[in-house]
Amino acid sequence: MSIFHLTRRAVMAAAVATVALTGAAVAHDYKAGTLQIDHPWSRATPGGASVAAGYLVVKNTGAAPDRLISATVPFAGRVEIHEMAMKDGVMVMRPIPDGLTIPAGGSVELKPGGYHIMFMDLKSPLKEGTSVDGTLTFEKAGSVPVKFTVEGLGASGSAHPGH
């Protein structure tokens, strides 16, 4: 085989890999109206765990705020929007029953140690390397189907753009 054919094959392989990687990155970002939802993810859970959390970034390019009012997933019995906060020197977790405001022209990051989506009464463990379906519901933008990528037990999400 000539050097031309080998080089051509290498270029084609690189192009295919680039398309595959770019497609995966694009497929993990979602849009709803003026909202962009970046990289929904969760951590793997050990067997017997009854809770997990979902993380993501919501950017609002619009002129008006919106609000994440609920989330649903088929793999948990209950889902709530939560925040972690310091109270009297102790880190506490509490639900946000009125939802989470996404400011106009701003963004909100749901991340470990802060805002997050709490998956309770898990029906089965979340396994690293898989993805799980969910739906986010916003006051103005409506319902948005997403997939949460399940990362390792100790994942921080910091390896992803926007984190």
Automatic annotation (TrEMBL):
<dbReference type="InterPro" id="IPR036182">
    <property type="entry name" value="PCuAC_sf"/>
</dbReference>
<keyword id="KW-0732">Signal</keyword>
<protein>
    <recommendedName>
        <fullName>Copper chaperone PCu(A)C</fullName>
    </recommendedName>
</protein>
<dbReference type="Pfam" id="PF04314">
    <property type="entry name" value="PCuAC"/>
</dbReference>
<dbReference type="InterPro" id="IPR007410">
    <property type="entry name" value="LpqE-like"/>
</dbReference>
<feature type="signal peptide">
    <location>
        <begin position="1"/>
        <end position="27"/>
    </location>
</feature>
<dbReference type="InterPro" id="IPR058248">
    <property type="entry name" value="Lxx211020-like"/>
</dbReference>
